[in-house]
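Backbones bend. To wit:
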Amino acid sequence: MAEVEGGAVMIWRGYRVSEWTCDVLVIGSGLAGLTAAWAAARAGARVLVACKGFAGADGVSPFAGGVVLYLLPEDDEEEFLREHEHLNEGLIHAEVLRRVIRQNASLWQAWGRWGAPLEREMDGSPRRRWLRIGGRSHVPRLVVDSVELMRFLRRLALRSGVRLLEQTCLTGLLKDPAGALAGAVGFRRQDGELVIVRAPAVIVASGGCSWRGAHMGQHNVMGDGYAMAARFGAELASMEFCASYVATCSLFDSHGQCVLAALGGQFRNRLGENILIRHGLPEPAPTHQLALAMILELLEGRGPVRFDLRGISEEERRDWEERFPLVARGLQRTGRDVFAEPVPWFPGFTGSIGGSGGIRWQRLGGWTSIPGLFVAGDAAMRTPITGAGSGITFLNLAWAGVSGLWAGLSAAGWVRGRSAPEPERTDRAIEEGLRETVEPLERRKGPSPRSVLRQLQQVVVDPCVSFLRTREGLQAALSRIREIRREAEGLQARDWHDLACCHEVRHAALVAEAMLASAVVREESRGWHRRLDFPNPGGPVWEVWTAARLQGEGADADFEVWLWPPSSLRAEPPEGADDLLRG
């Protein structure tokens, strides 16, 4: 655990409480979170990162592999944009995507100069490789070891003066009497200690929501940031696109299939047919189209679907294993050689990780509707970048880095001239936040969080609810989710680790309701959102995004959903990024 300084200690109702003060609180320590923390610190802010695990090894970032988009000025940017928007079935904001692509190149060039673990050319420049990922023919990617990259970013943040508060579960944002953002409360599960953080600015970079999905790194990606922001009054956006599935090996929770497919892997059904050819899809197919094909094969009785990797050369195999070392090591431990023996694969549920929903931002730099609240990475809506489909992983990683950079600069600029909230102005909010935090721990009886999580997963992961939708099915699922939300308000925690699970389940249930409520409103099919009662794209009238705002209090609150046009988004990034990257 990293050393942290400056936490005053007190006792509240018999609990040990540590109190921290900073200019910018960053929630989450993945690629977006550590980049945001570093950028804010370099811009002069006092920064504290709070994360549920070990900073840099938390969440999905260490498992991303070497698939990072790297377009340069000499490349055909417009061709990439046209192909990407077509394959992801629209809803992209072209100017936002252009700015992300261009900033991404300069960001990775700077990281390369500072020692990031990139494969290099003879002249020292980052080496690019070209692959047809997700049906795209114009995807130049960087070769990067994602585990070493996260270690590099951790060191970069620490050298910039960022403090790390690890093994810390934040449970709610603080509001002062005037309604302004004032920080957050939570607890450290290993120490059994409550935590108060006073900060005028908060960057939510805590990842998406997979409802404890099948893939590595997703065990604690439970929509905490979504739910805390929504309860504070921020809007969520494009939540109907939060039900994603990624092809997953039955032997091991695996990533990296998009690269294997690009190298020549083929998905075949029980009859030996190539399922992409059967469904008239490109090879390799966009992630959402492959998932749909796999689901249909299983539902129509032609399963299991096997991934045939026998056409991949030994050299390509060794290269893939170097790029995805954690996955390769896990597969080796199964005792099966999946490159020589095709084994069953299934559509593994990944929630919003492969989708595009998240906290709504209104301006590049992660500016939300709440002054002082910023968002980056998977916690942010990504529809302007990925459209109705997926950016896994070449574009998601680019977005994580760039959005973190911009959010850090925006938050540092916001706090300039502002001070941390005065303690006496937030005492009531802190008292309420701490009480809600420990409530499951003090409850004498109630359901276990794991039993309620299983009920939640049974609803959310069902492809007939999350991917093959009808109004009737969505309404029935919404009713069930609201019952689960009420049950989640009465959970009992046996210890501090159980307490973390209680809050995760509460957050994930709220996110599930936002997803289903948004799916009811979008009466068409595109990308990750498929409506059997509206099987076709809806045309120009549906070239809009959804937004959802929580109305009411407690378990009886529900979401109001409305439509908003992409033209209302401000595409100007914050100033200072180029100067920072030249440093």
